Amino acid sequence: MGVDVELQPGREALVRVPVATLWSAPEAARPVDRPALAAAPDLPAWIAGMDTDQQVGECVLSQLVLGERVLVTDLRPDGWAHVVAMEQPAAKLDPRGYPGWLPAAHLTTGPADPTGAGPDGAAAALVVDATVTTLHAAPDGPVTLPGVVLGTRLAPAGRAVDGWRPVHAPGHADPLWVPEGDVVPLPTERPEAKEVLAVAERLRSLVYIWGGMSSHGIDCSGLVHLAWRRFGVTLPRDADDQARATTPLALGDERPGDLYFFARPGRRIHHVGIVSTEPHGDDRRMLNACYLQRRVVEERLSADREATLVGAHRI
């Protein structure tokens, strides 16, 4: 892995790959993680190569999507960069964002402002609404970036042509092309909770990956963060921080799209799920990325879940 000479500690950079994985330390990466560490990460191959124990290795902290902003805080000669993910609040770890390590080759300092106006005067960014899409070198041309995920923001680069939309992508001087139906304007108004739930429901059966935050694999708080990111709303990365950033409700007042939080006595919150149906007495259901089942599932709260339920919150 070679270090981009333009990267400097103290300066911001952008993620240039569809999904970059954030690690607790360079030495924490395992042989099975090689596909995720490649200059062009192959997330499906990485996930397919892991057994169920490796899916929950705590060496993975989080993931960042194409165009996400980071602050570079350290660079190592072996090609690793320590960064703070500025779009993933984590107050207990760093007030600037979520800290961790990733390959410096996954970053660029090139411009691609997803909030800027395009040449056709469109002020709004685009956001990927498809579960996964690809960016091409030309309309219906060769694939340049496979595996671009739901919630990725893209800067418009002009009007659509024959069902394809040109966009700017970090690390690419020329516009790339995305199927027009895979992107929508980034909303400018706060979504209704049921709209966010509908996006999260599209990830049902997705594999559970500790630290995962993409439509290739995801964890419980990643599911909540990513579903709201699709609508331009930034939530903290971890479940306990999400609880502090949201409004508590009396149990029984929750509605679909609200959140359930779980903790064992005397310990911090360890799990979050999205309320999926109106509660009926003690009959509560949620959509969640389940550590035990290693999948995103919609389910009735089990006896253990009910015993550890510490509250319902609204965003």
TrEMBL record:
Domain NlpC/P60: 190-315
GO molecular function: cysteine-type peptidase activity
InterPro entries: NLP_P60_dom, Papain-like_cys_pep_sf, Peptidase_C40
Single GO BP term: proteolysis
Assigned keywords, A-Z: Hydrolase, Protease, Thiol protease
Domain of life of the organism encoding this protein: Bacteria
The keyword Manganese appears for this protein: no
Entries under PANTHER family matching the protein: MUREIN DD-ENDOPEPTIDASE MEPH-RELATED
Family per record: Belongs to the peptidase C40 family.
Protein's UniProt name: NlpC/P60 family protein
